[in-house]
Amino acid sequence: MRLAEMKPGLCVSGSCKAVICLELACVSSGQALDRVTAVKLAGTTKSVYNSMLKTLESLLDMQAPLTFRELSVQFGCPSRSSQVAEEALQRYENGQQVFVNGVSDCTKPLYLTASLYATCK
């Protein structure tokens, strides 16, 4: 909640921040929360609520890892393309030295998106 109050540009009501923090707590503990009710309690529109939720998830580094399947659905690619893109990225990672401090750099969303783009093209 303090982070939401300290971050400039997050111009929403205190109740909205509290409801978003409640949802983030529910997500991290594996509990269910009705999004429609949460938006009503927050007193904002669905788009503002979702935007604030994504912003706070990003600030707190709570974003779910991006997958090829999610990307292919988001961009309307055929279902087979996600499998081919994943195989292509694995081949690239095995053939290249893309390690920074012993950690593979291919885990960043940029590599996943580029691999899917190249596969679909």
List its traits:
66% helix, mainly alpha
Give the secondary structure arrangement, pairings included.
Blueprint: H1 2-6, H2 14-29, H3 35-42, H4 46-59, H5 68-75, H6 79-95, E1 99-100, E2 103-104, H7 109-120
Antiparallel strand pairs: 1-2
Helix pairs in contact: 2-3, 2-4, 5-6, 6-7
Outline the structure in words.
With 121 residues, the protein is mostly helical. It is built from seven helices and two strands. The chain starts with a helix and ends with a helix. The mean pLDDT is 79.
Number of helices: 7
Shape: elongated
Fraction of residues in β-strands: under 5%
**Rg calculated over all Cα atoms:** 18 Å
DSSP helix fraction: 55-70%
Residue-averaged pLDDT, rounded?
79
Low-confidence segments, ≥5 residues, pLDDT <50? none
Strand order of the largest sheet: 1-2
Order of H and E elements: HHHHHHEEH
Write down how many β-strands occur, each being a DSSP E stretch of 2 or more residues: 2
A few lines on this structure:
The chain is mainly alpha-helical and 121 residues long. 66% of the residues lie in helices and 3% in strands.
